[in-house]
Amino acid sequence: MTEPLNAIVNARLTGRDGLHSLTINNDRFTEITVQTSPVTAKANELDAGENLVTPAFIEPHIHLDAALTAGEPRWNQSGTLFEGIECWAERKALLSHEDVTNRATQTLKLFAAHGIQYVRTHVDVTDPSLTALKAMLDVREQTASFIDLQIVAFPQEGIWSFPNGRELMEEAIRLGADVVGGIPHFEFTRDYGADSVRWLMELAHKHDRLVDVHCDEIDDPESRFLEVLAAEALRLDYGSRVAASHTCAMGSYNDAYCSRLFRLLKKSNLRFLSMPTENLHLQGRFDSYPKRRGITRVPELLDAGLKVAFGQDSIRDPWYPMGNGNLLRTLDVGLHACHMLGMSRIERSLELITDNGAAALDLKEYGIAPGRPARCVVLQGQTPYEILLGQRPVLASVRDGKVLVQRAAAQPEADLILT
Ligand code: 17E
Ligand code: FE2
């Protein structure tokens, strides 16, 4: 580990003009001062090189227990969510503690190399041995120096539709899961789905846990569990602690229903997580043409004042064979898929992988401000537009005043020999 930094100099910050110095003391930012001109970095100062510096990236939705298992024991050929769940059930039967800890740790290191310092992972608890959950609790401890990890007790095969589903969820919470999950659209019936949402909200409320439900990840416009989740969040005054993940069906709802729904969503103040690369791949599979994108109404939710963040969901697993840990790639695809390449959207787009993720994860001490933990990333570019165009990996990731990751600037143009 390197010496602690005293400052980061020559930094651009979103929403402020000019260059800034961020001073650091005892792992925390102490002051942000405007520079009149670029300065030479002194010993124990990091030179941001006039690039944009943002809070550390957040991966708000990933399945680390399944990461890096694509093709084992077979490939998902149809590309549907449902075949993915079948492939995963076969792979799940082969899990061991080391298998899960190795793949999860490898993936978290890849994320850290891309400036991610906060991760929420779903872990399948529809397994009587809870092997993956127990392994992930160890991973949470072993990787704490470089990642803050939240663990969701995720019932992949249902709470109502899997033997002892409720007991397994309760046991996962007892063992130390941070977040209560759910999957109402996969339960056998609508009643099971709605009952499971009401039950999981009570469980979370009783044990003072966060909530993150895989909600309506299907192109069926009749899949309306989001309204149940939002109504429960409102009733329990719990909205800022509840995230609705995927909500793909909202891309298929009619506008009249959405108009009614949005009134409730605003009142309940739920958080939203959208996984654009994943759902472009998994959804629309039962359509001929025109084919739906299968992505929730991201710009409309943002314009309604709700917090939406993007996540990767998968990294080379039974649902999605791609993924490289670079959230800028996810952001780029998401902005395309959601018709969000207007410049005013691009300028605010980094919020989708930083501040909005912090709201979804209910992080208490996030952001670049005096008194907050000195955690940030130095990006390759001066503006969000430049950063999106390049999608180059972070130049540095700083955690609690120490440099966690540093790499040389990529200059692809310099490698080109034009004749
Ligand atoms: N499980 C699920 O239900 N949905 C997904 N998108 C993934 C796992 C990756
Ligand atoms: Fe997911």
What does the overall shape look like? globular
Ligand inventory reads: 5-methylcytosine, fe (ii) ion
Distance between the termini: 45 Å
Q: Which structural category fits the helices and strands?
A: alpha/beta
Please tell me the overall pLDDT: 97
CATH superfamily (homologous) name of the largest domain: Metal-dependent hydrolases
Major sheet details: 8 strands, parallel
Number of strands: 16
- Strand line-up across the major sheet: 6-7-8-9-10-11-12-13
Can you summarize this structure?
This protein has helices spanning 81-92, 97-113, 131-142, 165-175, 190-207, 225-235, 255-268, 276-282, 298-303, 327-337, 343-348, 355-360, 384-390, and strands spanning 7-11, 19-25, 28-35, 45-47, 53-54, 57-62, 116-124, 148-154, 179-182, 210-215, 242-246, 271-274, 307-310, 376-378, 396-399, 402-406.
Write the layout of secondary structure elements.
Elements: E1 7-11, E2 19-25, E3 28-35, E4 45-47, E5 53-54, E6 57-62, H1 81-92, H2 97-113, E7 116-124, H3 131-142, E8 148-154, H4 165-175, E9 179-182, H5 190-207, E10 210-215, H6 225-235, E11 242-246, H7 255-268, E12 271-274, H8 276-282, H9 298-303, E13 307-310, H10 327-337, H11 343-348, H12 355-360, E14 376-378, H13 384-390, E15 396-399, E16 402-406
Parallel strand pairs: 1-4, 6-7, 7-8, 8-9, 9-10, 10-11, 11-12, 12-13
Antiparallel strand pairs: 1-2, 2-3, 5-14, 14-15, 15-16
The structure holds 5-methylcytosine and fe (ii) ion.
